[in-house]
Amino acid sequence: MRYLGGKYRLRKQIAEVIKEHRGLPLSGKVKPYWEPFTGSAWVTTQVDKEPIYASDINKYLITMWKALQNEWEPPKNITEDKYNAIREGRKQVSDELMAFVGFGCSWGGKWFGGYARGEDRNWAREAHDSLLNKVDKLQDVNFFQADFLQVEPPENNMVIYCDPPYKGTTGYKGTGDWNADKFWNRVEYLSNKSHKLLVSEYKAPDKFDLVWQQETKTDLNTKDGKEKRIEKIFTI
Questions:
Q1: Which of 25, 40, 87, 228 ranks highest by number of CB atoms within 10 Å?
Q2: Model pTM?
Q3: Digit-coded pLDDT (tens) for 103-125
Q4: CB-side exposure of 21: number of CA atoms within 13 Å?
């Protein structure tokens, strides 16, 4: 499913960085894992060995993941009229369908950012297939709705991976204004209560260390093709 800021292209590489901090292979023991900005759950699908927790501030999104775990199947087609009726509140639907339409049927995966059309593609069908293909890898994940800036970790001594809205980029409509300073303060606070806290961003405050980076293409088109950026992971 398309999702603004999703980590489809880098999911395996990021999961390897996470794996390095979760435990020693010979012991068979791993640290509990929490992903508080799970979004489209691309990275979550690559993380194995319980316990795994995934949360997001968007209640519709979390309801959708739980419904999928319970064998809910999203529709294979959403018309533009139905999309607009849901977006404008003229048609009442379940929370899981709201998430599917709001993200999966919107241009660029931006929350109700406009009906995805063109290119002779059925975007709803593609989102449907993507979700059903990944849900088997998410059956053991503990999903819950929470605001990272306020919630405490679900367990002690966790490995935490954050993929927040990036500073200076398009925010996530429907979840309020993003305060990057509050985020980094919260990261520093939770770093003292966790085994390791990792953050995806383009830049971080000076006290944070760069542990991984890789050039990647974004979904933004330029005259030379897809725009390229350097994805980075920081810790403290």
A1: 40
A2: 0.91
A3: 999 998 999 999 998 778 999 99
A4: 20
